Amino acid sequence: MARDVRRRAPARSRPAVQKAALAVAAGFVLIGVLGFVPGFTTHYGDLRFAGHHSEAKLIGLFQVSILHNLLHLLFGLAGLVLARRVGGARLFLAGGGAAYLGIWLYGFAIDRNAQANFFPFNDADNWLHLFLGFGMLLLGLLLSNELGTGGRPDTPID
How many Å apart are CA 6 and CA 82, to the nearest integer? Predict the structure, then answer.
């Protein structure tokens, strides 16, 4: 009897930019989910849909609302989808980083007690947005040059 020996194609490694995008996206999904978990979110009974009147705080630091948590979830899920391709991973990291720098500027410029603070933001949120903005932008730009796929940059990796 002849043995049917099939060789598996060598597993392709994901480029660093995709790994980083997947990690960041997964982090956003996790934070979005944890924003709805009492205990992980302090003052959970004061969680509001939107606005600065939501007194709930993720790990007791970051002011959140239902809208804020949903946006984290959606942003993370979009990142997981985009990270399937190198170009999408770049877009998620660099574009998302630029967006977070814009959010930082917005949170820095608004009056915290005004209707414009609809997400809501506090000082801890603003510092986190600044860190995320620069961090994601740097990851997206610096890791984009290290493809390592041996193929086309937009080849999906499953």
Answer: 32
State mean pLDDT over 68-93.
97
Q: What is the mean pLDDT of residues 60-89?
A: 96
| Residues shown for the chain | 158
Residue 38's φ and ψ, nearest 5 degrees, are -60, 140
> By the 8 A CB rule, do 93 and 26 touch?
no
Entry pTM: 0.81
Which token pair is 79? 């990142």
Q: Is the pLDDT of residue 148 over 70?
A: no
Cα 153 from Cα 147, distance rounded (Å): 7
Beta bridge partners of 6: none
In order, the DSSP letters of 58-86 are ETTTEE--HHHHHHHHHHHHHHHHHTTSH
C-alpha–C-alpha distance, residues 157 and 149, integer Å: 9
